Amino acid sequence: MRSDTPKVLHALCGRAMVGIVVDNATSAGIGPVVVVTAPNAAAVRDTLDDSVRYAVQDEPLGTGHAVLQARGMVPTNGDVVLLNGDVPLVKPETLKALLQRHAEKEAVLTLLTSTLTEPDGLGRVVRAGDGAITEVVEEKVSSNRIAALTEINAGVYCVQSRWLWDTLPTLQPSETGEIFLTELVDVASKQGLTVESVQTTDGAEAFGINNRIELARAEGVLRKRIREHWMLEGVTMPDPDSVYIDYAAAIGQDAVILPNTHINGRTAIGQRCEIGPNAIVSDSTLGSDCKIRASVINEAVLEDHVDVGPFSHLRAGTYLESNVHIGNYCEVKNSRLGRGAKSGHFSYLGDAKIGSNVNIGAGSITCNFDGEKKNLTIIGDDAFIGCDTMLVAPVTIGARSYTGTGSVINKDVPPDSGAIGAPARIIARKRPDP
How many structural domains compose the chain? Predict the structure, then answer.
């Protein structure tokens, strides 16, 4: 991969590929899951946390040697499923089919194969005249006859546990000193034991990832699967090829995702939302009936019936209650806007608590940073902030108060009052009804 990041931690649709492998195994009912790592694989442990068990392979001596490190960490009866951390596109339903075939045929070993995957560089499955699998031969040591075979080994196995642990220590190292799992096929065949296979109907399931080109190819496959899943769940995408949805995102029924939209991380979008075009929503939660147009939303929470954009930015810590309107060229950071509040144009609201039904005039900002720390602005319910108001925090605007156009507010304004000028003078009277 030419990277400081371990290969299995490179992400597909926002999820490390080894995490996808673990998720698929768990979804298929396989467990406990043991992940075999190198000694310096703290990053893998940080990614998967304690959701799995870990075994350590001190030296990279092949796939067979890696599996041996997990001996004693899984039951010695039953079956063991062996998966590669860099083959992330195997579906849970395929793993279930592998387990079912293995049980039905009482096989000692069942492997996943494909005739729909480009065979270059992959091990070929060799069969006898009766169709029985006799061996798997790696391409680099294969004859021309075997290299011409199109059925490849996907590197996914279900093996009888007791036979696996008895057999692995007997495998002979290759010329490179490595022990390979493919040798199990040859041993089982020579012992006259049943070797079965399941052939995938999706050639992408056998994709292994060894460089950035293959990473991009796998991401394209997974992204298409994700889009199709959500469309079948009732989400509309007029131009799905221009939509990017991450692995952990969730979208409600009757939502519409418009072109050139990115839904990243653990974003959850409610029913009947309209997102895009040209929107980026990351690690955020949106209620139902929200509209986001050509804006960036990051680590924010939006209740129902909120609309944002175009060309606005909600930063981390933003919380918008129901029926809030954020118009164009507005930035909100670490602030809560109450129900029905509005900021229509060209504003910055940082470190603020804004009440219900507050109107923020165009060009208004909270001056939240004094050069040393961030300070809080509080605006009470039903307040009216005139255009180009500068709110010099820490400052409080009382409920139902107003500020005049171009005012600089550097002291608290009581409820039912006005503040006009730069610096503002307080007018101790209730703002007249419009």
Answer: 2
